Amino acid sequence: MKVNAITLRSGNVIEYNDKLWVVVKNDIQQPGKGASVAQVEMRDLRTGNKDNVRFRTQETVERVRLEQDDYQYLYEDGDGLVFMHQETFEQITLQKDIIGPPVAYLVENMIVEVETYEGEPLGVRLPDTVTVEIVEADPVVKGQTATTSYKPAVLANGERIMVPPHIESGTRVVIKTEDGSYVERAKD
User: Fold this and answer.
1) Residue 83 half-sphere exposure, CB side, CA atoms within 13 Å?
2) Number of domains in the chain
3) Which one of 21, 41, 142, 181 is most buried, counting C-beta atoms within 10 A?
4) Same structural domain for residues 7 and 42?
5) Each residue's pLDDT tens digit, 86-139
6) Long-range contacts of 41-48 (CB under 8 A, 24+ apart)
7) Residue 169 lies in domain
8) Looking at the structure, do residues 112 and 140 belong to the same domain, yes or no?
9) What's the Cα-to-Cα distance from 111 to each of 84, 86, 94, 106, 155, rounded to whole Å?
């Protein structure tokens, strides 16, 4: 589907120079003289390389629609991760680097969203948050106030995060999968 470059938004996927790119940032620049331009920062979906491209505002680009399907994570197989489609029960194996850092929060039987283009998997989106148990937390430093300070803790999956002082070992907490940050204490 052809769209004007000026209408691109962060997260849109376009085909440019025979490659698939995801728009990271789109900035409209209006110089004192001449026509406005769209300065688009984008990342290659397959290689991860970034590029900045300047389009005239009237210029059109090919916007691509990715298919999103729910898959269930089954198990790890060497360097690959095995997922099963929720409707067709077809199994696929994906490399860990497709998911990136959030792979640490992937647990068996978790439902994830796999984005594909013409049958080729391009990305995996985990749920926004997961609940994980704290296995080790530093003791509270005397005089530390809860509003301004956090302390280091280790999750059951081995990841280190910062948590409020009132969180102790054995506590279940909600973590953002996008950046691994503490959200809240889990409601049991």
Assistant:
1) 28
2) 3
3) 21
4) yes
5) 999 999 998 887 787 888 888 899 999 998 888 888 888 889 999 999 999 887
6) 42/14, 42/16, 44/19, 44/20, 45/13, 45/19, 45/20, 45/21, 45/117, 45/122, 45/123, 46/19, 46/20, 46/122
7) 129-185
8) no
9) 9, 9, 15, 9, 21
